[in-house]
């Protein structure tokens, strides 16, 4: 009896994982865990498969950020040091070749010449470094009639550019349209009502029916392009195996909203859905059950929907709870 129950649980788990776990996109929150709800009280893992770019930092970037003022090689460690070492070695070689104290005096003369040359080179290097850093060389420069007061703006823009953020052009206020377009997209909470939850319940049944019927036109209407690609990929794999996924008698048992927010002109909502359905794999030719059984199984998932302002809600992610 225990072995029978174990095999049944394995079969049901395989059927429920037919779409390959958690996948899709949740906007800026794709790689964040959704908050628990009454329907899904356990912490749900973030999306595992997504076309949304990750935010992993490049190797060494943290070290560069934590040490912005790392010491540069000094003059005597760089070209000046190489020059001085060459002069010293040349003088010593001359002395060893028999020039005696005269060679030593010549060495001192070379040292004096080398120090003068090194001083000139150091001044030139400092001049070009000050030009590159935009310090005093830019402080008094007039740009469009602006005085030294433009220097802080230039420094802030340089810091923004290094951080990969859009910079603000001096003289354009934060309330202008150009500055708003350059500002990064912010996430803000969104209030939903009961009609939205009713729509999500309707989408649950519509998506299952479209997937069972392998109705690609309906899937394109109900899903985001990314989700359409995932579903189409699985339907193609089922066809290659000679099976089709039959999901029927979908009944929603409990549902609530985990979170809802807006990003620019797009709205997002993640709903926890606990539903019951018959989920089976059937042979495409004979219709016989290949995986699963006729007994209904219970599933809890997080479905994320998105819409553009004034548009319809579309499924953009599914997470296993």
Automatic annotation (TrEMBL):
Keyword Transmembrane helix: yes
Key words of the record: Membrane, Transmembrane, Transmembrane helix
Domain of life of the source: Bacteria
Polar residues: compositionally biased ranges: 49-69
Biased composition, class Low complexity, residue ranges: 25-48
Membrane-spanning intervals of the chain: 75-97, 104-128
Region (Disordered): 21-72, 138-178
Pfam families (UniProt xref): Tim44
InterPro entries in the cross-refs: NTF2-like_dom_sf (IPR032710), Tim44-like_dom (IPR007379)
Record domain Tim44-like: where: 174-320
Signal peptide residues on this chain, from the entry's feature table: none
Keyword Magnesium (UniProt): no
Designated name of the protein: Tim44 domain-containing protein
